[in-house]
Amino acid sequence: MPRQHHLLAVTSWLLKAGTGFSLFVAALLIIALGAVGVAAMNPELGIPPDQVLGGVPRTELLAMATIPISAGLICFILVATAFRSTTRIVEAARSGDPFVNENADRLDRIGWLLLAVTVIGFATQRAIDWIVPGSLQGHVNFVFDVSPIGLIAILLIFVLARIFRVGSDMRAELEGTI
Amino acid sequence: MTISVKLDDLLHARRMTLTDLAEQVGITLANLSILKTGKAKAIRFSTLAALCAALECQPGDILAFENDGRSGE
C-alpha cells in the first residue's frame, strides 16, 4: 500500500475517533444539563439552598451554568458533524475520486460549522463575562479565544470548497470529452 | 443549436463497423459509441484527426451544425 494510502487511512481513523470523542463529550454535556435541571427542581439536591457562592443565589448560579453547558453541547455536535463531513471527504480521496460536487458541499458545510462554533464560543465568552459577577469570575473555567489563524483556516476552507467545485465541474466536463 | 455526429453515415458508406473504427482510431468502443449517439460533450482535436485519418474524410464530414432555434446548453 502506498504511503499516501497509509496517511489517508490514519487520517480517516483519527477523524472517526474525533467524531466519537465529540459525541461522547456532547452526551456528557446532555447529562450535565439534566443534572442542572434536576438540581433546579430539587432544592435539597446539589448545592444546599442556603449556600451561595460569591453572593449569587443558587437558582441564578444554576441558570448561569446552563449557558456554557448548552453552548458546549451545540459546539460539540457541530464539531462532530464537521468531523463526519471531513471523514467522508477523506474516504472519497481514499477511493480515488475526491473531485466531486458532494465534497465541495461538504467543505462548504465544514466552513459554516466551524464559523458557527467560533461565533457561539465568542458569544458565550462575552455572555459569561457580562453575566457572571466579578466575585465568581475566579470559579469560571470557560475560556474561548478567537484566533486569527483559526479564522484564516475557516476562510481557506471556503476557498478550498470553491476550488473543489470548479475542479469537479472541470472533471465532469472532461468526462464527456472523447 | 446542436452539433450532430454523422458517424453512422460514414461507417455505412465505408462498410466499416464501429469496432473496426475503434481499433483503427485507438479509442474504446464505449467512447466511440458515446460519440456516435451524440452523448459526448466535447471531442479532442487528436480524436477528430484520428477519425478523419481512419475514415479518410474532413472534420466537416463527421460533424454538422444544426440550428434548431434554441440556444446551446
Overview of the molecule:
The complex is a heterodimer of chains A (178) and B (73). Chain A has helices spanning 3-41, 58-94, 101-131, 134-137, 148-175. The radius of gyration of chain A is 22 Å and the shape is elongated. In chain A, helix 1 runs antiparallel to helix 2 (58-94), helix 2 runs antiparallel to helix 3 and helix 3 packs antiparallel against helix 5 (148-175). Chain A is mainly alpha-helical and 178 residues long. Chain B has 73 residues and is mainly α. Chain B is built from five helices and two strands, in the order E-H-H-H-H-H-E. In chain B, strands 1-2 form a two-stranded antiparallel ribbon. The N and C termini of chain B lie close together (8 Å). In chain B, 11% of the residues are buried. The mean pLDDT of chain B is 88. The chains are: A mainly alpha (178), B mainly alpha (73).
Explain the layout of strands and helices.
The complex is a heterodimer of chains A (178) and B (73).
Chain A: H1 3-41, H2 58-94, H3 101-131, H4 134-137, H5 148-175
Chain B: E1 2-5, H1 7-13, H2 18-25, H3 29-36, H4 45-55, H5 59-62, E2 63-66
Antiparallel strand pairs in B: 1-2
Short description:
Chain A has 178 residues and is mostly helical. Chain A has helices at residues 3-41, 58-94, 101-131, 134-137, 148-175. In chain A, 78% of the residues lie in helices and 0% in strands.
